[in-house]
Amino acid sequence: MSTNFRDFSGNTLSLPSSGNDSPNPFDPEKLRLPAESLSNIKVKTVLQTIPAHKPSRQAFIRTHHDPNYRITAAMLELKETREHYIVAPEVYQILRTETTVEPRILITTITRQGSLFLWPLRLPKSSMKTDKWAESALAAADMAQRHWVRVTANMKAGAYDIEQASGNLPEPTWPEMTFQEILNAAFKGMVINNVNHPVLRQLRGEE
Question: d(Cα 121, Cα 107) in Å, to the nearest integer?
């Protein structure tokens, strides 16, 4: 659409109309990227919270086969709240006689549904000839590196039963996270790095 007017000589001039007929800059069809331009974009999933606990008796699990995705660390577990704290090595040397603090193997573990967690495995107690609970849990974690397994407590046997999945299940899809990122998501604010930490003061009855 144009606007016509005459100049001083009587000639007719035509100018394009202003404003209303210009393209809308917010037209969705003009802004939408073609699908092929998105095909090479990779999204990295970073989990903000990762729990630390034993596997559910109903869940089939796998443990990470890479030894860099596990660590032996001193840990403190609050039974009432089921919270796990990592204890710094220098603090553990002071508290190693405390029954609430003991070494655990933290192993990166995943369920069939893709839920990531850290499995804190207790080491067999050297003071006992046999420690079936700890030994069977370690055996389950080792087997879970290669197979989908389910771990259930057998109270009569005093050990864990290990059941291997019978189906041909696919390999787990691990999140693209470093072990440091996993530890940070699991224990941010849950590290005991001095003997006057509020949790230790509470256990000593000082708070």
Answer: 8
Residue in the block written with tokens 């998105």: 38
Tokens read off for 88: 């710094």
- pLDDT values of the chain reduced to their tens digit, one per residue, 207 residues: 555 555 555 556 555 555 556 777 767 777 776 766 666 656 555 557 899 999 999 999 999 999 999 999 999 988 888 888 999 999 999 888 788 889 999 999 999 999 999 999 998 876 667 789 999 999 999 999 999 999 999 999 999 999 999 988 999 999 999 999 999 999 999 999 999 999 988 888 886
Q: Which residues neighbour 98 within 8 Å (Cβ) at sequence distance 6 or greater?
A: none
Measured in degrees and rounded to the nearest 5, phi and psi for residue 90 equal -70, -30
pTM, two decimal places: 0.74
Residue 56: strand, helix, or coil: coil
Under 8 Å between Cβ of 61 and 110: yes
- Alpha-carbon span 3 to 124, nearest angstrom: 92
Coil, helix or strand for 201?
A: helix
How far apart, in whole angstroms, are the C-alpha atoms of residue 49 and residue 190? Answer: 12
Provide the 3-class DSSP secondary structure of residue 119: strand
